[in-house]
Structure prediction request, 493 residues.
Amino acid sequence: MTKELIRLKVNGETHELAIAPNKLLLDVLREDLGLTGSKRGCDDSSCGCCTVLIDGMPMLSCVALATSYQDAEITTVEGLARDGELDPVQEAFMSWGGAQCGFCTPGFLMTTHALLEKNPDPTLDQVREALASNICRCTGYTQIYESVLAAAQKIREKRKNEIAISK
Amino acid sequence: MRPFEYGNPSTVKQAISLLGSDWEQAAVLAGGTDLISLMKDYIDTPKRVVNIKSISALRGASEVNGGLRLGATTTFEDLFENPAPLRDFPSLRAAIDGIYSAQMRSMGTVGGDLLQRPRCWYYRNGFGLLALDSKGQSLVPHGDNRYHAIFGNAGPAYFVSPSSLAPPLVALGATLRIQGPKGERELPVAELFRIPRHTGEREHTIQPKEILTEILLPASARRLRNATYEVRERHFMDWPLATASVALRMEGRRVRQARVVLGQVAPIPWRAEGAERELAGKTLDEAVATRAGEAATVGAHPLSKNGYKVQLVRVAVKRALLAAIA
Prediction:
């Protein structure tokens, strides 16, 4: 099929790519850009493993055409760490055993990141609800929820310190 | 996914000019959660895909003439984050709150909710909307029909209408604006849906060259007491098994006129007219709500594995009614 030139902004970097219009965002990320953090799990929009942030919103890259998101800011799990420093969500998942086999983890990290951007003080119920469409078959979810709540606390403390410093 | 030509118009007019005279020619892409899934499974194989998300005029909720206008590509997240426009419509809020998946909320649009194709697993696995075997017989009555219709299922259609928003919108008397090559038409939400009578007929009355652009709720709908109650198998991340949405014109505690619409139990949003008659003129209390729930089940024809839905309808109607006057 005829390829078309598209421009995609991923993790702050703009890429020009020749792709077929029927190529999924997930495949462009993994195959064309080598960003294999986003995973193909169910491939039918049920498991959340392919979740990336598009303009800050968690979306499923397995039902997204890459060509439709040319004007958007796309963030994958590879873009969470900044200047060699892990994102608080990543750190908390590491410290609290939020990952076992790790396959679903990038999706959880992205959905969690989006949740905590909006609501840095979620209740356990809100965490469960926000992560309802990310599926993990190892952990039984308890450690994941603990990780999310720990990340939330870390983010709140960080913000408090930033405010204190700016004063 | 089959190859296709991609169109990314910035106006509705351009978009319409890119559509074809039959469904195989072109498909309209909004949130994509349903269309792309169907295309990946080769259930839908359009030659052209027309993305309408770049048409900024189609997105957003606003008050118009005292009523409410929802642009077709308004996402659930838009409404979830800013529910102010829905303040008089708790029945719509409940339906939106019922879409738990954060990803579906970010991607899914209100127009897409109405136009999503049925979830029937025969359809989704390539047996066609009417789930026919090689002899032209439906697989549903003798197959696994636990999630299929209990109303409007005389055949050949047995699937259920999956829309979350349709029951409240029909109950509230909402209309749709649809644009096509010959201009714009407005139709009641109820008339978007039909029970297909033969292969090749879709469950929606929208035509291949048309685009759903707006959902409109009249100002008068703000005076209706309304509520939606969904019964689901799992708390999160699932389509409901049965939904009841009610809109009541009240005079004090007395119901002057009721609209009761069921979701997930028929190939179309199903008006429970028996329940509506039962309610008219009554003072609504728990006993009346219970009788209305019973009346809503009159005419139900459960299949071999979905008799449980009859009880769900009873309960959903009763609880929606009590929520509406709470």
Summary: The mean pLDDT of chain A is 95. The beta strands of chain A are 4-10, 13-19, 51-54, 57-60, 73-75.
